[in-house]
């Protein structure tokens, strides 16, 4: 049996939620077909594992415990808005996170442990971001461009990062449900 897994840092911000709600309710934005991520699902993805044998969950917990053993809670700046993969053909709207320098070596260590234990680990540098929405069809792309231009440098909030979670992602017709299988508080 397998579970669809990822490792992430949960992020919570009432100020950011309020700002995103104003964007969602903008009449021009509503012309676009977008799947907005529920704020309770906001996280920074450290590693997407995909379908993983259930018997490897305990090993993943041990690797997370080992990698994050020395990490202390810290503050990060929720700053800026952007799109992936590029401004001409966006399909993800995101908010950026800064001040995560102390997670970079931990991310590398986790990746090394995962590779040594035959897990796939994306070698690309960590680009900390919160996925806010996935774009399905843009009837008014200009509103997305305006959002990125107007809020590209905005500081929305200072958030606390104080845990890492091994999540199971359960896909449903109403959107994914993220179930915490293991949480390491710090």
Describe the structure in brief.
Helix content is 25%, strand content 40%.
Taking the alpha carbons of the first and last residues, their distance comes to 31 Å
Strand order, sheet with most strands? 2-6-5-4-7
| Rg, Cα atoms, Å | 17 Å
Number of domains: 1
Order of helices and strands: EHEEHEEHEHEEE
- The CATH architecture name reads Alpha-Beta Complex
Low-pLDDT residue intervals, each spanning 5 or more residues: none
**Amount of helix:** 10-25%
The number of distinct β-strands equals 9
* Structural class determined from secondary elements: alpha+beta
The backbone outline, from C-alpha atoms, is: globular
Q: What is the count of helical runs?
A: 4
What's the average pLDDT?
Answer: 95
Largest sheet entry: 5 strands, antiparallel
CATH class: Alpha Beta
Task: State which percent range the strand residues make up.
Answer: 35-45%
Give the CATH superfamily.
Cyclic phosphodiesterase
The name of the CATH topology is: Cyclic Phosphodiesterase, Chain: A
Describe this structure in words.
It is built from four helices and nine strands; from the N terminus they run E-H-E-E-H-E-E-H-E-H-E-E-E. The protein has 186 residues and is α+β, with helices and mostly antiparallel strands. It has a single domain (2-185), classed as Cyclic Phosphodiesterase, Chain: A. The protein has a five-stranded antiparallel beta sheet. A four-stranded antiparallel beta sheet has the order 3-1-8-9, with helices on one face. A hairpin with a 6-residue loop joins strand 8 (163-170) and strand 9. The relative contact order is 0.27. The mean pLDDT is 95.
